[in-house]
Amino acid sequence: MRLSEADGRPVVSRASAETLGALKHVVIDVRARRIVALHVAGGKRHARLVDWASITGFGPDGIVVEDDAAARPPADDRESAVAAGRLDLDGRLLLSDAGDALGALTDVVFDEGTGAVTAVEAGELSVDAARLRAIGPYCVLVRAAPDDPPAPAPA
Amino acid sequence: MSVLMRAREISGRPVVTLDAAEDVAEVKDVLFSYASTRVVGFTLNRRGFLGSPMKERLPWSRVAALGRDAVMIERRAELGPADDAMEEAAAASGDRDVIGATVMTDGGTSLGTVEDVIVQVGGEGARVVGFEVHGPRVERDRAAATLLLPVADTLAVSGETLMVPAAAEEFVRDDLSGFGSAIEEFRRRLAEGR
Fold first, then answer.
1. Residue ranges in chain B whose pLDDT is less than 50
2. Residue B20 is nearest to which of A134, A144, A153, comparing CB atoms?
3. CA–CA distance, A96 with B65 (Å, rounded to integer)
4. What pLDDT does B141 receive?
């Protein structure tokens, strides 16, 4: 599934049937290549993050979590940055570790059953998640590959 | 594989950390050694609107990669004092800037003034391989307003003059495409001819 399809999907508590908010951002563990938490925005509560482990169903019309207590405040600087939109993925520069820009990030492909991230996309370009090195305030950094789009001819 | 870049294009490129994907500085000036023609490091500006100069330097020995769009370093801590190669190059050059110097061949012909420095980035580091030269003679003799002039393994630069072998003039190119092979031919000629 693509993150753009899941964007804005309601996050609902199974215990209370209350909507906790809508999916706004994701927290990705780059080393593990997984989505580890969702940032849920627009609810009544101040609690903002939902661990992937709390999800009981990631369906086409809603993301169901165990109970209202699944939503929690950001636990570290990185989660705070995600919740504040400072690590927003959409449109972020995709840069190779050789220092060459590959494009602007348009989507993240992931497995809705496990949260495993399989690829990141910049328009037509799809980069295997195995090449991910870091997601930071400046860019999404990936390992350079021989088949990266060649440098434009110097003027 | 190697890539040719203009030094002015490198100035302003962000310095990005591989561990945090963060832009921690941007390149102010490219520093190179006249004795070895190698790029020895960079002076830095802070990122952002104001872009004030930073006291930290980035020696080439701590650069992970120099790409089209960014200079990559492992972590923020790579920024710091100049290393020996930078200190030596600065001491030897006496802060003489090659930009604006008059290019004079050893035959006594003035070709114009240096507008920019052409840097080749490859497996074994980054080195100066040519200059972009501009001047009245250039405009009179050539279609393009600027020329690319290949350089030898070492450079003689005073405050106002850059001395080049007369043979360099034959390998002048109007643009960067084909300049790489011109450099190789020129170097071969120098090696054979002297």
1. 143
2. A134
3. 10
4. 55
Same domain, A18 and A76: yes
Residue with tokens 């850059």: B162
Considering its fold, how many domains does chain B have in total? 2
Residue A18 in domain: yes
Find, among A46, A61, A73, the residue nearest to A12 by Cα: A61
* Of the partner residues B3, B5, B21, the one whose CB lies closest to the CB of residue A138: B21
Tell me the C-alpha to C-alpha distance, in Å, between residue A30 and each of A144, B21, B140: 16, 12, 58
Chain-chain contact of A99 with B69 (C-beta, under 8 angstroms): yes
- Domain for residue A104, yes or no? yes
- Residue B3 contacts A where some CB pair is shorter than 8 Å: yes
CATH assignment at residue A30: 2.30.30.240
ipTM value: 0.84
**B 46-65 → A contacts, CB under 8 A:** 64-65
* Bridge partners of residue A108, in order along the sequence: A120
Test the A interface: residue of B10, B15, B16, B177 with most A CBs within 10 Å: B16
pLDDT-based confidence at residue A133 (cuts at 50, 70, 90): very high
